[in-house]
Amino acid sequence: MTSKEIRDLAPNEITTKLRELREQLIQLRMRKQTGQIEKPHLLRDYRKDVARLETILNEKKRKAVAA
How many domains, the chain? Predict the structure, then answer.
């Protein structure tokens, strides 16, 4: 998910996406511990997506407070 796509979303949608990604990340971590993970690169991708979502959500919150 790119930053441009995230910026087009509403804060509610960003929060929902963030929750979904965190759940997927937890499931991937559990599969990694049991040795059942097929695509280990997804862990890094999900972590980066979570960081992007949080950053843009915080920017939107700061804009709303300033306005």
Answer: 1
